[in-house]
Write a structure and sequence with these properties.
Main location: membrane
Keywords: Cell membrane, Membrane, Transmembrane, Transmembrane helix, Transport
Membrane topology: Multi-pass membrane protein
Shape: globular
Structural class: mainly alpha
Distance between the termini: 28 Å
Number of helices: 18
Radius of gyration: 20 Å
Helix content: over 70%
Number of strands: 0
Largest sheet: none
CATH class of the largest domain: Mainly Alpha
Number of domains: 2
Strand content: under 5%
CATH topology of the largest domain: Growth Hormone, Chain: A
CATH superfamily of the largest domain: MFS general substrate transporter like domains
Subcellular location: Cell membrane
Pfam family, one: MFS_1
Length: 387
């Protein structure tokens, strides 16, 4: 465990790569559209398809590989990811690009889930929340630094270059993983059906509702961050600066998430949700003032990912203690149900904005945040009763 910081950096680099691969398309939609003579709307479906494949494939793959050595599973899945990403760069037509994105999406969730399981073997127990929060932070770093940089590179060179750069960094990361990560990290040999016993435990079946409602609450508002900023009256050219600052607040959110996980975890999250409810309820009023509005929007960034580490550690610890055969499956639950929550939140936000405009999105978010608070309180009672 003495090398856990170096190993953590490698896992963060891995999540940074996955984040770049996932988010990159949103920054080069026009480039891809021009290359293949496909409408931007159709190219946008690459983003939707990625999310759907990610959500479907992650629990399937993690359950199938649960019996295998996790080190070798991670290596093999990373190689498949590198193949899919490289194919994106070489894609001679749009259908091949779609296939390449399906390949990348099908293993991305399982890779991040496996990397989470390594937190229990590379770090002392009191540092596991720290490791998990930094792995999640890799995605925030990708959105703040990696994606804008990749978009800038695409504007100077061909958009394919960005995929090749990701491949290059991925190969370096793969080598570092092979050298540094523990190789004797074996899964529990058990029938596939026994892994799904995990989902019958109320600590899990109730727990999965927490990231679902938490991310729904965030994305009702976050989906419309850009147009809300536009209503505040700041110069249009300042948007990119605001998005970078917002990205920094989301990175802070991940780090605070790790601290919460290491100092109380789910027990103190109800206080967080009370604060979150207030943040969303005052949004319709604060958005009327440019300075109060900007503070309120940045507070959304700060609360954005606070649930990540506490719920991830809860899932992992529950599986390790009661369902060791399903640790890998348990590690996938937070990403999967967060993505489903993101889809619901975005859809609800679309309905609100389409019918009543931007101001009420905070009200919609607060309703989901109240649901998350109720679920959190009930989950804490279930955990206390079973401990």
């Amino acid at each position: 465990m003495r090398n856990f910081k170096a190993q953590t950096i490698i896992l963060v680099l891995l999540s940074f790569i996955l984040g770049n691969n996932e988010f990159l398309v949103m920054g080069i939609l026009s480039n891809i559209s021009q290359t293949y003579h496909v409408s931007i709307a159709n190219v946008g479906l690459l983003v939707t398809a990625f999310g759907i494949i990610y959500a479907i494939s992650t629990p399937i793959i993690t359950s199938l590989i649960g019996n295998f050595n996790r080190y070798y599973s991670l290596i093999v899945l990373t190689i498949i990811f590198i193949f899919g990403n490289t194919l994106s760069g070489f894609a001679s037509n749009y259908p091949i690009l779609v296939i390449s994105r399906v390949i990348s999406a099908s293993v991305a969730g399982a890779i991040i889930s496996l990397s989470m399981t390594f937190s229990s073997v590379i770090a002392p127990k009191e540092k596991q929340g720290f490791v998990v929060s930094w792995i999640f932070s890799g995605f925030s770093i990708a959105s703040v630094i990696g994606v804008p940089l990749s978009t800038a590179i695409s504007s100077v060179f061909d958009w394919r270059v960005t995929f090749f750069l990701i491949t290059g960094v991925s190969i370096i990361t793969l080598i570092l993983m092979m050298v540094s990560l523990p190789k004797d990290f074996k899964g529990q040999t058990s029938p596939l059906r026994s892994q799904f016993e995990l989902l019958k435990d109320s600590r899990i079946s109730f727990g999965i509702l927490l990231p679902f409602f938490a991310m729904s609450a965030i994305y009702v508002t976050y989906t419309y961050l850009q147009p809300m900023y536009g209503t505040l009256g700041f110069p249009a050219k300042s948007l990119s600066v605001f998005l970078v600052i917002f990205g920094v607040t989301s990175l802070i959110s991940n780090q605070l998430s790790g601290r919460i996980s290491d100092h109380g975890g789910l027990k103190i999250m109800p206080k967080v949700y009370l604060f979150e409810i207030v943040v969303f309820l005052i949004l319709p009023f604060f958005i009327q003032n440019k300075y109060l509005g900007i503070i309120n929007l940045l507070m959304v960034g700060v609360i954005m990912y606070l649930i990540n580490s506490p719920i991830q550690i809860h899932f992992l610890n529950t599986a390790k203690d009661s369902y060791p055969q399903a640790v890998t499956l348990a590690s996938s639950l937070n990403p999967v149900f967060s993505n489903i929550g993101i889809s619901l939140g975005s859809a609800v936000g679309s309905v609100i904005v389409g019918n009543w405009g931007l101001s009420p999105v905070g009200i919609g978010s607060s309703i989901f945040a109240i649901a998350a608070l109720v679920i959190n309180l009930k989950l804490n009672k279930i955990i206390a009763a079973k401990s």
